[in-house]
Amino acid sequence: MPLSPQRTIAELKELRALTSNENGAQRVAWTDTWLKAREWFASKLQGLPVEHHYDPAGNNWVTLSGASESSLLLGGHLDSVPNGGWLDGSLNVIAALEVLRRFTDEFRGQPPVTIRVVDWADEEGARFGRSLLGSSAFAGTHSIAADRVRTDRDGIKLEDALRRCGVEIDRFPEAAVERKNAAAYLELHIEQGPVLERLNLPLAVVLGTKGVERHLITFHGQEAHSGSTPMQHRRDALAAAAKLALEIRNIARKHPDAVCTMGSVKTFPGIVTAVVGRCEAALDQRDLDPQVLAQMFREAQEASRRFAEEEKCTVEWSRIWNIEPIAFHPALLDLCERSIHEVSGTSYRMPSGPLHDAAEVSRAGIPTVMLFVQSLRGISHNKIEDTREDHLALCVQALDRLASKTAAWILENR
Ligand SMILES: [Zn+2]
Questions:
Q1: Measured in angstroms, how far is the CA atom of residue 240 from the centroid of ligand 1?
Q2: Which residues surround ligand 1, an ion (CB under 5 A)?
Q3: pTM exceeding 0.90
């Protein structure tokens, strides 16, 4: 079948009708609706000369064998957040399937390189708070001991939820076998932010995924009666945290793509009649450049000490989580830029703030690149998530061009 971006759009709508309700997509990993989405996807493979299996981490693999065993991987995720959108993750998988159909058609079932479509298991981490679960098993960066005991809101353990879907967490390391012959990885995704819409551009080359420093910052002051404690004698832990919440904006603004967010602040004792004795603030800092990230981290620490002193408080930091910036492959960035230019006459390069499975694949040493398509209103993880249909058609075409160029690149660089 020749490439049909309209079929991709129709299939996305089909999946939406099957796995959404009035609040949006409900394809949360390890639930019945997610399994239904995967069953639907498997039904689309009928008549194609492909091999289909789930690996020991629950990743869903479709392989079209080529003349060479060297494999071009195209990936995404059918899982969604609760009340999610119709495109996040699914677009990538369904567009990848369309590209596989085109290769099947053009090369009568045997393309020059092997083409593999992967639907990663539990990209979102929506139920157990562990994102990129399946792709981390593939990449060998999994954290089984910490993950198996995670529980969902109903107290169900992660390892039990996986077992119900036929996945044994102890077998996760075996998913690494899928890395065999993997020569390149491509991932299309909606932007999930407002940048491309503001620039009036349909598509972008993704330079890489930003590194993240995520810390819990605790300011210690003195709980005191809010009626009897004069202003000059207070040791108000919230005042110090509040100053920091404003300062991180200045710290981020020195760099074009950097972001800093204080997304959570808790006060203790947290009553209206007491000066805040203790304040816990969660800080998330991101940038693609490791030096910028390190500088922002340092500056936030220095600022927190300064504000603690001003408010007669003390401060301590503890790391919640971090990941290094992942830069995508330079040769593939160029191929991606050319592909976008061919279909849209435009080109633009930008980093990704959100993490994606592509980051894990890249960490495994496989040359990787992503492309973004514009998101309307910059909204995602919500039922109003949307992209113009002409842009959806363009992104399928761009992914298809990129796949052909990358296949040729694989053969040249074998
Ligand atoms: Zn996604």
A1: 36
A2: 88-89
A3: yes
